[in-house]
Amino acid sequence: MNDTMNQKEKVMGFIYVFLLFASVTAICCLLLFYYNSDYKVFAQKDFAIYKMDRIREHQEAQSKVSVVVDSLYNKINHYNPGVQAVYEENDIKFMINTLKNVYEEKAWDVRYKSFYHIAEFYSMWFIDKKDLWGKQENIRKFKKNLEECEVGLLKNKNDLNASLNK
Q: End-to-end distance of the chain based on CA atoms, in angstroms?
Protein backbone atom coordinates (compact mmCIF):
# COMPACT_ATOMS: atom_id res chain seq x y z
CA MET A 1 0.00 0.00 0.00
CA ASN A 2 2.90 2.32 0.61
CA ASP A 3 4.10 1.78 -2.89
CA THR A 4 0.94 3.15 -4.47
CA MET A 5 0.79 6.38 -2.39
CA ASN A 6 2.80 9.30 -3.48
CA GLN A 7 4.25 11.96 -1.22
CA LYS A 8 1.30 14.36 -1.60
CA GLU A 9 -1.23 11.71 -0.57
CA LYS A 10 0.90 10.81 2.47
CA VAL A 11 0.98 14.46 3.58
CA MET A 12 -2.79 14.84 3.06
CA GLY A 13 -3.42 11.64 5.05
CA PHE A 14 -1.12 12.86 7.81
CA ILE A 15 -2.91 16.25 7.93
CA TYR A 16 -6.29 14.50 7.96
CA VAL A 17 -5.29 12.19 10.84
CA PHE A 18 -3.65 15.09 12.68
CA LEU A 19 -6.79 17.30 12.38
CA LEU A 20 -9.00 14.41 13.47
CA PHE A 21 -6.73 13.76 16.47
CA ALA A 22 -6.57 17.48 17.34
CA SER A 23 -10.34 17.91 17.13
CA VAL A 24 -11.04 14.81 19.27
CA THR A 25 -8.44 15.99 21.80
CA ALA A 26 -9.97 19.47 21.89
CA ILE A 27 -13.46 18.08 22.45
CA CYS A 28 -12.23 15.79 25.23
CA CYS A 29 -10.37 18.65 26.90
CA LEU A 30 -13.42 20.86 26.58
CA LEU A 31 -15.61 18.23 28.20
CA LEU A 32 -13.11 17.50 30.95
CA PHE A 33 -12.04 20.98 31.86
CA TYR A 34 -14.96 23.21 30.98
CA TYR A 35 -17.82 21.19 32.40
CA ASN A 36 -15.88 19.92 35.41
CA SER A 37 -13.90 23.03 36.11
CA ASP A 38 -13.46 24.85 39.35
CA TYR A 39 -15.16 27.86 37.79
CA LYS A 40 -18.49 26.08 37.97
CA VAL A 41 -17.78 24.97 41.53
CA PHE A 42 -17.05 28.57 42.50
CA ALA A 43 -20.23 29.71 40.80
CA GLN A 44 -22.19 27.08 42.70
CA LYS A 45 -20.54 28.15 45.93
CA ASP A 46 -21.39 31.78 45.23
CA PHE A 47 -24.97 30.81 44.51
CA ALA A 48 -25.15 28.78 47.73
CA ILE A 49 -23.74 31.71 49.71
CA TYR A 50 -26.23 34.07 48.05
CA LYS A 51 -29.08 31.68 48.84
CA MET A 52 -27.95 31.36 52.47
CA ASP A 53 -27.80 35.16 52.75
CA ARG A 54 -31.36 35.40 51.45
CA ILE A 55 -32.51 32.76 53.94
CA ARG A 56 -30.77 34.60 56.79
CA GLU A 57 -32.33 37.87 55.65
CA HIS A 58 -35.78 36.25 55.64
CA GLN A 59 -35.22 34.83 59.12
CA GLU A 60 -34.21 38.28 60.39
CA ALA A 61 -37.34 39.77 58.84
CA GLN A 62 -39.41 37.07 60.50
CA SER A 63 -37.89 37.78 63.90
CA LYS A 64 -38.50 41.52 63.52
CA VAL A 65 -42.06 41.05 62.33
CA SER A 66 -42.92 38.46 64.98
CA VAL A 67 -42.91 41.22 67.60
CA VAL A 68 -45.32 43.24 65.47
CA VAL A 69 -47.54 40.21 64.90
CA ASP A 70 -47.69 39.42 68.63
CA SER A 71 -48.51 42.98 69.64
CA LEU A 72 -51.06 43.25 66.81
CA TYR A 73 -52.75 40.07 68.03
CA ASN A 74 -52.94 41.45 71.58
CA LYS A 75 -54.25 44.82 70.41
CA ILE A 76 -56.99 43.31 68.26
CA ASN A 77 -57.87 40.78 70.94
CA HIS A 78 -58.27 43.52 73.58
CA TYR A 79 -59.84 46.06 71.24
CA ASN A 80 -63.26 47.27 72.32
CA PRO A 81 -65.14 49.03 69.55
CA GLY A 82 -67.55 50.52 72.11
CA VAL A 83 -64.80 52.72 73.47
CA GLN A 84 -64.26 55.70 71.21
CA ALA A 85 -60.47 55.36 71.04
CA VAL A 86 -59.49 56.41 67.54
CA TYR A 87 -55.80 56.15 68.38
CA GLU A 88 -56.22 52.41 69.09
CA GLU A 89 -57.89 51.85 65.74
CA ASN A 90 -55.23 53.89 63.93
CA ASP A 91 -52.47 52.01 65.73
CA ILE A 92 -53.94 48.66 64.66
CA LYS A 93 -54.28 49.84 61.05
CA PHE A 94 -50.68 51.12 61.12
CA MET A 95 -49.40 47.76 62.33
CA ILE A 96 -51.38 45.94 59.65
CA ASN A 97 -49.87 48.22 57.00
CA THR A 98 -46.41 47.57 58.45
CA LEU A 99 -46.92 43.86 57.81
CA LYS A 100 -48.12 44.54 54.27
CA ASN A 101 -45.08 46.73 53.60
CA VAL A 102 -42.72 43.89 54.53
CA TYR A 103 -44.26 41.90 51.69
CA GLU A 104 -44.33 44.81 49.24
CA GLU A 105 -40.63 45.50 49.74
CA LYS A 106 -39.78 41.99 48.54
CA ALA A 107 -42.82 40.99 46.52
CA TRP A 108 -40.62 38.99 44.12
CA ASP A 109 -39.79 36.51 46.89
CA VAL A 110 -42.65 34.09 47.44
CA ARG A 111 -41.72 33.49 51.08
CA TYR A 112 -42.61 37.07 51.97
CA LYS A 113 -46.19 36.53 50.81
CA SER A 114 -46.91 34.96 54.20
CA PHE A 115 -46.57 38.43 55.76
CA TYR A 116 -49.21 39.72 53.37
CA HIS A 117 -51.55 36.85 54.25
CA ILE A 118 -51.04 37.46 57.97
CA ALA A 119 -51.81 41.15 57.49
CA GLU A 120 -54.96 40.32 55.52
CA PHE A 121 -56.05 37.85 58.17
CA TYR A 122 -55.62 40.39 60.98
CA SER A 123 -57.35 43.05 58.89
CA MET A 124 -60.35 40.77 58.34
CA TRP A 125 -60.40 39.86 62.04
CA PHE A 126 -60.34 43.53 63.03
CA ILE A 127 -63.14 44.45 60.62
CA ASP A 128 -65.19 41.43 61.69
CA LYS A 129 -64.76 42.36 65.34
CA LYS A 130 -66.05 45.88 64.66
CA ASP A 131 -68.96 44.56 62.57
CA LEU A 132 -69.86 41.98 65.19
CA TRP A 133 -69.89 44.62 67.90
CA GLY A 134 -72.13 46.85 65.76
CA LYS A 135 -74.55 43.99 65.11
CA GLN A 136 -74.64 43.06 68.79
CA GLU A 137 -75.39 46.68 69.67
CA ASN A 138 -78.23 46.70 67.13
CA ILE A 139 -79.62 43.49 68.63
CA ARG A 140 -79.49 45.02 72.12
CA LYS A 141 -81.31 48.13 70.87
CA PHE A 142 -83.93 46.03 69.10
CA LYS A 143 -84.49 43.92 72.21
CA LYS A 144 -84.87 47.07 74.31
CA ASN A 145 -87.34 48.50 71.77
CA LEU A 146 -89.21 45.19 71.74
CA GLU A 147 -89.45 45.19 75.52
CA GLU A 148 -90.71 48.81 75.46
CA CYS A 149 -93.27 47.87 72.79
CA GLU A 150 -94.40 44.86 74.81
CA VAL A 151 -94.79 47.00 77.92
CA GLY A 152 -96.72 49.63 75.93
CA LEU A 153 -98.86 46.96 74.30
CA LEU A 154 -99.57 45.35 77.66
CA LYS A 155 -100.46 48.75 79.13
CA ASN A 156 -102.80 49.50 76.21
CA LYS A 157 -104.35 46.01 76.52
CA ASN A 158 -104.94 46.54 80.24
CA ASP A 159 -106.42 49.99 79.58
CA LEU A 160 -108.70 48.50 76.92
CA ASN A 161 -109.80 45.69 79.23
CA ALA A 162 -110.42 48.20 82.03
CA SER A 163 -112.51 50.44 79.77
CA LEU A 164 -114.54 47.47 78.49
CA ASN A 165 -115.22 46.23 82.00
CA LYS A 166 -116.74 49.56 83.07
A: 152
